[in-house]
Fold:
Amino acid sequence: MDFHEVMLERNANFARTDFSPELKMMPSTGTIVVGCVDPRVDPATVLGLKLGETAVIRNVGGRVSHALIETLAVLSVVGAAAGRPGGARNLVLLQHTDCGIIGCHRHAPALLARYLDVEEAALDTMSIPDPYEAIALDIAALKTNLDLSDGLMVSGLVYDVTTGQVQTVVPPTRLRTPSN
Ligand SMILES: [Zn+2]
Structure:
């Protein structure tokens, strides 16, 4: 059996046993998780996310980029259209050790710079080899983005691919304290 057939068989099993037509388009926890495409770090599995609980966005590295911000903007409009103005309440960044973005930085920096929509020289300031530093930088970048709601709770987690454990590097904090 090739993998295509394996997936169809697993889907048939899912449709029989776990499917619920009651799920809503908006995540039941008001949470968006941003993670890496690496198959070892699927947020649904490593964080035990259940269907319908969270929206998950995955890119190379789980990094904050122009494309990610654009995706969040679209989701915010989708949320408003679905009757939940203000968008998500929680945004969780999940990055990980031994990420392929490190090799991409080393071997194809111009490509990675284009992907992240930054100047190539800026890559050296993005702590690409160190997810613990990178996640703090990315949370700081989110805080400066005025397109995101002040009340959004943001947090940063790093997953260690050698232990399976997640460490909270940036605990959940409000994106910005309200002015006045
Ligand atoms: Zn990765």
Observations:
- The radius of gyration is 18 Å.
- The mean pLDDT is 94.
